[in-house]
Amino acid sequence: MSTGLAAMGPGASGTGVSTATVPRSALGPGVSLHAYDIAVLVVYFVFVIGVGVWSSIRATRGTIGGYFLAGRSMSWWPIGASLMSSNVGSGLFIGLAGTGAAGGLAVGGFEWNATWLLLALGWIFVPVYIAAGVVTMPQYLKKRFGGQRIQVYMSVLSLILYIFTKISTDIFSGALFIQMALGWNLYLSTVILLVVTAVYTITGGLTAVIYTDTLQTVIMVGGALVLMFLGFQEVGWYPGLEQRYRQAIPNVTVPNTTCHLPKPDAFHMLRDPVSGDIPWPGLIFGLTVLATWCWCTDQVIVQRSLSAKSLSHAKGGSVLGGYLKILPMFFIVMPGMISRALYPDEVGCVDPDICQRICGARVGCSNIAYPKLVMALMPVGLRGLMIAVIMAALMSSLTSIFNSSSTLFAIDVWQRFRRQATEQELMVVGRVFVVFLVVISILWVPIIQISNSGQLFDYIQSVTSYLAPPITALFLLAIFCKRVTEPGAFWGLIFGLVVGLLRMILEFSYPAPACGEADPRPAVLKDFHYLYFALLLCGLTAIVIVTVSLCTTPIPEEKLARLTWWTRHCPPSELEKEVQESTAGTADMPSGEGPTGAGGTENPRHGQEQPAAPRRSWGQLLWGWLCGLSRAPEQALSPAEKAALEQKLTSIEEEPLWRSVCNVNAILLLAVNIFLWGYFA
């Protein structure tokens, strides 16, 4: 889920620390930043802004395809890096390390599960999306089923999820880390990060986002690996971690409870299906439902793969992203466990009064595991690097969400109300919507700050479990089952939403008890894990979709050209027919601009002499550059050129050599993944 909601573990106790009362002593007395640390931070910001400006200048920013899909010119390596950094936000560093400190290795399975779904994205989903010629996921559903209600439903739901879960989580976690490490004001930290992030998102589009994501992936992985080695060296490597973690018991405990004891199965991935905090059937099957939504249907992730210059590059990006997703177990989860082993009285505290003094949250302080390790172990200079790592995680995740949200709003929402909107209007609207997201994000910070301590990440994961499974079921059936119809899809989504909301209301009506308190929750809550619920909800939604579809008129075969797995290789002539019908039924895209959003530009007076462009002031020139508005005379494409461009942009043909290279690397990646699962199971 960044966007990775599906990458976070359940039961992340203490992950919603109230930052209003966090004392500086939480990270140890006398720990402060040296001038070298500040210098590293300054260099980092200058470098990131420089990369953003460079990529903005060289990017094609004046077309929908250029701004929203990087001109479909990206290579495999920046795509893979962007897939990683888009998912690994600051919330993952804080929350995943905290969950590792509290419960052990099992939460790392959320990262390793992503490998399988990234390959499914490159080999199954992306070929269909490219063949369909779509920019957004709701747009695909519009072309697949017709009508507007599913497209609007999906767009609005996605925007709500982005604003109130992904953006708020990353902002809160990143600002928490910066406040604790630097002593900055929470709101000052938030505003500075959001403004810098929004500037190169607005000016550069997806090209700037992907290149800065690539830079920040290198920073994240490099800095986190340094901290991992320092931590392992401190505890005596992996055997020492096993011994010291099992003995990581705080001096002050709550009488007649076991909350202070490390879990006996902390070093096992697969846990009891009934009593385990992360039951193994839920980790393998239920998590796959959530991860399919996150990696194969979520706009933030899929948009990166759709920017590839070819299907082989999209597959290569998935393979690289899969390898990178193996690493968080080692440089986030295990350092969280190391932090508890080294500082059990702080990271592992259970007494509410002591926890309140240490970190400002009565429910526990596992959330400070990663910041504590950074400030205590990293030497001068590298400490600043690790703060830059967290900033990189925050900014890369936010840029991804900002760009994808502006895409959804401009293409799927704005055009519903402005059916004659020009391409330039869509460019401006997309950028202005990023500003709106920044404002909403800043206003949302105080709401997060006063939220029930320790429940923020549990809340986010629960929301994912309630809303994502119906979407997963719909996309799987849309791609693999030609018999599914629009009424079946719509009423299946409504059914899934109602059932998910019922569970959510119960969940928030009966909050989980604190350590040592009786559990008054009904059995359907305390004995039915949310991963099991996700699996059940996905299955029930699929049954409703299929049942209603069988009772309605099937979609004609010719209407499914290049829109399902079985029809993705239909000839271009059928595609052109679909493009015309889709364009007429959606938003009257500008002339020369197909549904892929790339290609020619609007020219309603094709064939007439263009008047000379009037002189513009410096302010007008700056506004035009920010919004991607060009002074160059608009040039229309002939019907033959448009057809050739459309065929190229929707081609899923691959060179045999590179197809084989991708397949071999995918098999090697799966072999590594299976070995790791077996070793830590």
Automatic annotation (TrEMBL):
Spans through the membrane: 35-55, 76-96, 116-135, 156-178, 184-211, 218-238, 278-296, 317-338, 385-414, 426-447, 459-481, 488-510, 530-552, 657-680
Keywords: Glycoprotein, Ion transport, Membrane, Sodium, Sodium transport, Sugar transport, Transmembrane, Transmembrane helix, Transport
Main location (coarse class): membrane
Region: Disordered, residue numbers: 576-612
Superkingdom as given in the UniProt entry: Eukaryota
Similarity comment: Belongs to the sodium:solute symporter (SSF) (TC 2.A.21) family.
Name used for this protein in its record: Sodium/mannose cotransporter SLC5A10
Native organism: Balaenoptera acutorostrata (Common minke whale)
